[in-house]
Amino acid sequence: MNELDLKAVGVTAINQTLYKVPKDSNERHWMIRNPMGQHAIACGLDGPLAVDIMGHVGFYCGGMNKEAEITIHGHAGVGLAENMMSGVVWVKGNASESAGATANGGLLVIEGDASSRCGISMKGVDIVVGGSVGHMSAFMAQRGNLVVCGDAGEALGDSIYEARLYVKGRADNLGADCIEKDMRAEHLEDLAKLLERAKMKHRPQDFRRYGSARKLYNFNVDHADAY
Q1: What would the pLDDT profile of 37-66 be if each residue is shown by its tens digit?
Q2: Cα three-residue angle 188-194-196, rounded to 5 degrees
Q3: CA distance 42 to 51
Q4: Residue range 153-179: average pLDDT?
Q5: How many whole angstroms separate alpha carbon 136 and alpha carbon 189?
């Protein structure tokens, strides 16, 4: 394992070092010490690295990730894994606002709670939250899965498109055009796989599924009060 000390070399040097690791290199496992809540750590990675960040991180950690597996041994700030394309971003603690925003693929696991707008405009990512999520989570979510093992805050799934939302706890206040849907066999199977990948020991049967009522795809004056 290779170690990098952020306090000693700074964020830019760390990101450049990781980005420049050849794709055929045997040096795949890296550890970042003393992250000190700095922003934009391990952003733009473009190869199959395993990166352990030993502490809390600030804004946009793991943004634009492609192929790498990033584990944060602490809490994460705003915009975690924003626009992630593939790979895994795993947070051992909690995440602040807009985790997984606009993410196109990969897996984002937050073992604790996530704040507001988790999964906003998600476009294909799978997000599993071990705790609860804040208000406006999955706002304008287009594709992918959001699994919430706790409760969901106000306006869950507002203006949602075709993403699937699974909530084990309370979801008392759904957003515009978001409704509860039947949990069929294929959904239980998909959810079971997601929970297994995220190492969450919950029964899929205890979750409820939410998705789009498909009334807001095009403007219709009869539905104007729902906008």
Answers
A1: 999 999 999 999 999 999 999 999 999 999
A2: 100
A3: 8
A4: 97
A5: 27
Distance CA 2, CA 212 (A): 46
Over 1-40, what HEC string results?
CEEEEHHHHCHHHHHHHHHCCCCCCCCCEEEEECCCCCCC
pLDDT for the residue 196 = 98
Distance CA 192, CA 140 (A): 25
Mean pLDDT of 95-120: 98
> What is the residue-wise DSSP string for the chain?
-EEEEHHHH-HHHHHHHHHTS-TT-S--EEEEE--TT-SSTT-S--S--EEEE-S-B-TTTTTT--S-EEEESS-B-TTTTTT--SSEEEESS-B-TTTTTT--SSEEEESS-B-TTTTTT-EEEEEEESS-B-TTTTTT--EEEEEESS-B-TTBTTT--S-EEEESS---SB-TTEEEE---HHHHHHHHHHHHHTT----GGG-EEEEE-S-SSS--GGGGGG-
pLDDT value at position 82? 98
* Burial readout 142-172 (b: 16 or more C-beta within 10 A, e: otherwise): bebbbbbbbbbbebbbbbbbebbbbbbbebe
User: What pTM value is reported for the model?
Assistant: 0.95
Per-residue confidence band for 225, with pLDDT thresholds at 50, 70 and 90: low
pLDDT at 219: 57
